[in-house]
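Why do we bother with a discrete structure alphabet at all? Because it lets us treat a fold like text: something you can write down, compare, and reason about line by line. To make this less abstract, here is a complete entry for MalT-like TPR region domain-containing protein. Read it the way you would read a sentence in a foreign language you are learning: slowly, and without expecting to understand everything at once.
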Amino acid sequence: MRLTLLVLLCAISMSASAQWLSFKKHERSPLLPQVQDHSISRFAKADFNKAKRIKFKTVPASAYDMELAENYVMKTAQHNMRFRVYDLASYNFSDLAQLYVQQNRFSEAKWYFLQSNFLSRQQNNDKLTINNLMHLAGVKSDIGDFILAQQDLIEARDMAASHGWLIDLISVEKKLKSIQNSRIQTSKAELRYASNAMVAQNSVD
């Protein structure tokens, strides 16, 4: 009887030792530290103000890319106008107008430059107003409205001079000179065309 109890106790002891060793071999890794910030703002609350503007220095690779860019800027402008963020909306309209210039959609470009100018003047953003006037003059020059283009540039020049913005003043002067040269070249081409037409008419007669 005693021998049986002794064997039973030894077996129990060996089993317990084996379980302990097995537990030591498979220790659990420490728990990861709990996240202290339980708000969802870091993930769900995007900083929309950082994406208010988009700049296009070159034409997107395809018509599809251009359409995506146009839709993005349009929605951003609508958002800013809806919440009366007019200072950013004025930039959105200017960016949208430049997109239309890249597509030679001059009527739409002209309209959005005018809208941007309206807002920039309300916000006393003369820097953007000068920039818009220069781009607007380029659009008017492209469609042949040289006199109106020069008027926009003269207004931009006066505005830059009143603030003492030398860099802007130089840029406006270069643009004004370029448009004046384009006007002279266009006038010469029209005179040559008219002269050739007169010669051709005389030869027929």
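What the structure line is telling us, in plain words: Residues 131-196 form one domain. The two ends are 146 Å apart (CA to CA).
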